[in-house]
Write the structure tokens for this entry.
Amino acid sequence: MLAWTIYLSFLGAGALTLLPKENARAARWVALAVAGAGAVVALVGAAAYPAGSGLVTVVRQSWVPALGIEYYLAVDGISLTLVVLTGLAAVSGILFSWNVDQRPKEFFAFYLTLIGGVYGVFLSFDLFLLFVFYEIAIIPKYFLIAIWGSTRKEYGAMKLALYSFVGSALVLIGVVAAFIVARTHTGVASFDLEALAAVPFPVQFQCWAFPLVFIGFAILAGLWPFHTWAPTGHVAAPTAASMLLAGVVMKLGAYGALRVAMVLFPAGLHFWQREVALLAVIGIVYGALVALVQKDFKFVIGYSSVSHMGFVLLGLATLNEIGVSGAVLQMFSHGIIAGLLFGVVGRMVYDRTHTRELSQLELMNLSRGLPFAAVTFVVAGVASMGLPGFSGFVAELQVLIGAWGAFPGFALGAGLGILLGVAYLLRTLQRAFFADAPVSSRLPKAAPAEFEPISMPERIGAVLLVGATLAVGLYPRLLLDLIVPSVVPLVQGLQKGAL
Amino acid sequence: MSTVDYLELLKLAAPETIVVAAAVAVLFVDLVIMRDEPMRHRLLIGGAVTGLGCLVALLWLAKVPVHAAVLGGVLVVDPLTQWVKGIVLVLTLCTAALSLHAKFTEHVGEYFTLVLLATCGMMFLVSSDDLLTIFVSLELTSLCLYILTAFSKRDRSSAEAGLKYFLFGGMAAAFTLYGLSLVYGLAGTTNLRAAAAALAGQGLTPLLAVALIMVVIGFGFKVAAVPFHLWAPDAYQGAPTPAAALIASGSKVASFFVLAKVLMLGFAGVEGSGAWRQFSAGWAPLLATLAVVSMLLGNLAALAQRRVKRLLAYSAIAHAGYLLLGLLALANSDGRPEALAALVYYLATYGLTTVGAFGVLGVLERVNGSDRLEDFIGLSRRAPGLALCLVVFLLSLAGIPPLAGFFGKFYVFTAVVGAEPARLGLLWLVALAIALSAVSLYYYLQVLKRAYVVAPVAGADRIVLTWEDRLAVGGLALAVVLLGVFPSLLLSPLGAAIQVAGY
């Protein structure tokens, strides 16, 4: 049934292109219905998944027998978590783009194609299929940003597309090489991820194949120093696209790094473990420091994404159960929180103030003009800082504990990153919303009222995301019961393969 | 030489015969019956007869399976050649459909006759294992294509392109003939397999090396591999669009297939190796060199193009590089069936994609009068369906899944790496090819950016498509998507055919 998340998205995209004329209302509702149905399917699928039951096949069919390629969709706790995240992000993204009037049909068609590709990656257990879905997600991103974006949109879009394509080129080299080595070794042509994971690739091969594939995927996860597409891309993108970029597309990279690079080449991971962790920590601290000095509201969030994705990569590199489960939980948590932050910045604030310069926002008294936006941003901000009660806390704590076990020095660096996170979020919060400085008296008294009020779709979208982060923060077992039973055997496999 | 059973020969060569008959019929109908009819009718009737001829030949190929070789390899018919001929015929059919709005000539009969004769030459090319017939059919194809290139008589660039193509092609023919005659002189036979058998065990003697290089140079011109590519951008640019489509698709399919045969069968035993740090002399390192420079120059030069036909020409050069890699995989006889299947699949899908892209170009040229990048601005508003087809074709050329171009590349790359599986010796070539595909996305996106992102200029109205355009371009786009999503549609029968053909 979970396969319908993919089919629905693609069918919805097709249906949208067939809609008779530029009817924004119809396009919106169709998109919302499709994304909503996808999210419901994802949630029902997650609820129906018996915890701890390992890998459950959804569809398995021969696809290209000549190369042993299968159409093989399956889920475990890790992929289910991310499928649910995709469903939530997709629905809230549409709610936050309710005001798209320019070429709405195409907007939502590209949007749903992207969503379909993302679902596909999270559900694929055939390496070839996974790669196909991974690449399907590239082109819609380009068009979403280049057509509907803002600040230097064509530059940001092209940069993002080329970075993604270079990343997938690296992955493709690794995939072809791994396939041939495995086929020579076993005599069977197969792209089945489980079968490939069981192949003992020569250590020397793993030592160069792992960085190739890992970096290929991690480019999309915002691994420092390959992260530069992320801030420009996020800033250039329209609200819904930046919500998806930060919310789910960066997770594609992290997921691929875990599911393909790490699982196939555990010895390679073991060999490069320190380097990966080092890059992740640099990303955490660097992203936070740069966010601290940004003048543009959206760039702050863009760099904070780089910082928070660093936690995901650090967690993966710890190679212990608590660190890896923390990384998976952080993927979910950051997906929700980043989506919320981008929603506030892009839709609630920018679409009304038409500026993202913090120095100008200071003059607008937004806490009174847009109280709902201010409250939402405070909630999202404290969630992002990792305050207890929100999902970010549980996730980052686990990553820190895991990192402490593996490399205590790096854990300190990551802790510093959290402190810096508090600093840049408070600074932004203060300047964007609560700068009730004397300057505000220069504005006419009626200033706060001039903004159009926060609309119902925005409220629903915000509540949905806040609810998700609160639910997981207050009752982490909701997801951990899904994640941990799948992570434990995976990590044991990694540790065994590393020896 | 044994006596020939002419009835048997006619049966084996029936598809070619049908094509020739259609060529004569087109000429007759147009010159005798349709002389005074309006252009539109003449084009429609001419196209219909051409299409009918191709369809009947296709039907014959599908319905009458034969497997035989006559006159010691002068004409070899096996399921694989039937498939490749079928691909060539389909490409010709699409070219004919794109020609129905030709404004470049009044000589409808001659035009379609030349298209059909070129096709006939390609079909014979595919079917021969003999140096002589290879050369003769190569010349038949080439001569028709030279004339087609220069067919737009009022257009100076067409005449220039024709002359350039002709001069380069004549040189290439000389090289090919010289190389082939050396092979004959060394082996004493014109049959490819017999020649390889006669030369077996001698290794790469200096004279054989000269012959090999000559042959590769000659075919290098035909397939537009660097450094023999100089004619391609001008010919693509100057030739009437349907003729350029035929040069870029059908002719390429046939030339690559026969080059594969010549190297694989005729130069068996002197493969050499292009594996990293294990180079040894033979045709593999030769092809590896050509492939590397073709991929590099094709992809990098395409970045700078402002005209879409030239862009497609450089992209064709880059694709010739990928295809040369595919030939490299044939050097190892273990993985040969797979490599051959990969090559033919790539050729077929590349041909379909290219014809489709030229089809879109043709429509735009009709409306705008040129093929500059700026003419693509706002295409998604002016003709949404056409723009969508353009997306399919260009992204397939760039190798984005789930389109056919992606699977073609993937399969060729696996075959190449799989040809040297022990130490992954050929991975360096594949890594280069994949890296350069990433570069290629940039210039394809330059076109798509104008089609989708840039707002149309005021006054640009909707483009009205005729039913032939819809059928041809839409059908091709559908084929590219279908073959990409279900590669087994083509791969399974190809695999079986290759097995029966005994490679």
Remarks:
- The mean pLDDT of chain A is 86.
